[in-house]
């Protein structure tokens, strides 16, 4: 039986605001922080039920709105293996969050318990965390009310990054098993990353200091803890660490700013010396974008596509050096936003798959490779080593010292890389390890291929749901005839490519265009936008 009375009395203190429709989208619930109280309460109850469904395994809840402005907030649920919530439950979460009254909520809960056959006598455990947003404090206490309403045992992981929370979920659920993922604490995680990194770079030329733009968010705290676990192997210069300054979060800084504006955060202007590497995290430290200034002081972007190219080529080489090239196949997953030049570079070397936008699509596609490298152009991504591949690495008998070294590096990569979800800080160490091995500066990394100029514009339309896509969002099926007009335009541009898709996080339609020449990419984007409008 559901604890109806305890849910009822607590739910009444977290009423759903009328006239707002919530949706569990690509990145969970996300909107103005001040409207989310009832959602957090209900997510607490849902997470408790989800845990019961998994026989008391721990479920995660992360309170964050990532790169969004400071006044926004959001929440997402993490499944027992540290992965994003299963799609069917996204729909349940949406339904439950929109029940107008406590009675409706109770009825919907009852229906959920029956249709998904939840055994209510099972225990429930939930670990939760938040980013540095001021609205997070009250939202966490609404979440805690939800947990106590359903009788779930809560563990507060405090203020930390999204990927740390994902890690914790997996570490807690594998604790004391042969698959143990590591110590279930933030410190345990950073120690694990730090020791894997130090093994990977030992004996190499020491790395030049790296400038890290922390977006004035939780990444500042995490990067500080991490740097304490690197044993001086990588000096970090932390910038934009003002987590207490109202309005500073993600404001004119951070990975999303750098990628969309294609420019340096103004706060770094006097900080970055030509040739020096820098990177930006986003507000919950799951996105990473690199950049540098060339010798003329011109800003050069090294985005998720460049990270994928750098990392995939490195892993392919290690696999070959370890004598495993016939047994371990490396593949790459991208989205339509991947720069055409990156797709060309990669597909000449290994299998490349294109999927719809959103981490869960990339993650699932990457699971089909022995080693799946996935990065969105915006800097979200990681590398997955399949369980069979990890077993193969562990069992492989190298026949030369060179094979043994390469094998060791691969094993350290499996420890360095967060297998649950992309982590800006783990990805940063991965990039730095590869640069150290290749003796690359930003310039050499950048020259793997030359980005095609591109432009992203958003268009406010009457109804973005009228825009439906196929072929991994690369073509529109509706509105009718629009795709034919886009094709007709694209044909007129040298190296032209353009596509239109509805945003999953904002009430807009996005238009992407690229071409061989900057002015042509801009023109194509604006002309396609004109067709959409
Ligand atoms: C969300 C997704 C991100 C995607 C972005 C696209 C997750 C955790 N995050 O932030 O991967 O790139 O949405 O936004 O899946 P859009 O649909 O508004 O273009
Ligand atoms: Zn993020």
TrEMBL record:
Binding site residues for substrate: 376-378, 501-505, 510
Catalysed reaction, written as an equation: N-acetyl-alpha-D-glucosamine 1-phosphate = N-acetyl-D-glucosamine 6-phosphate
Cofactor(s) required for function per UniProt: Mg(2+)
One matching Pfam family: PGM_PMM_IV
UniProt feature, compositional bias: Polar residues: 1-12
Domain Phosphoacetylglucosamine mutase AMG1 per the UniProt entry, residue ranges: 204-288, 303-440
Active site feature: 66
GO molecular-function terms, A-Z: magnesium ion binding; phosphoacetylglucosamine mutase activity
UniProt keyword annotation of Cytoplasm present: no
All residue ranges annotated as the Alpha-D-phosphohexomutase C-terminal domain in the record: 476-529
Positions bound to Mg(2+): 66, 282, 284, 286
Cofactor binding note: Binds 1 Mg(2+) ion per subunit.
Keyword hit for Transcription: no
SUPFAM superfamilies in UniProt: Phosphoglucomutase, C-terminal domain, Phosphoglucomutase, first 3 domains
Keyword annotations: Isomerase, Magnesium, Metal-binding, Phosphoprotein
EC nos: 5.4.2.3
All residue ranges annotated as the Alpha-D-phosphohexomutase alpha/beta/alpha domain in the record: 59-90, 109-175
Protein's pathway: Nucleotide-sugar biosynthesis; UDP-N-acetyl-alpha-D-glucosamine biosynthesis; N-acetyl-alpha-D-glucosamine 1-phosphate from alpha-D-glucosamine 6-phosphate (route I): step 2/2
Annotated segments matching region Disordered: 1-18
Family statement: Belongs to the phosphohexose mutase family.
Protein purpose: Catalyzes the conversion of GlcNAc-6-P into GlcNAc-1-P during the synthesis of uridine diphosphate/UDP-GlcNAc, which is a biosynthetic precursor of chitin and also supplies the amino sugars for N-linked oligosaccharides of glycoproteins.
Protein name, UniProt field: Phosphoacetylglucosamine mutase
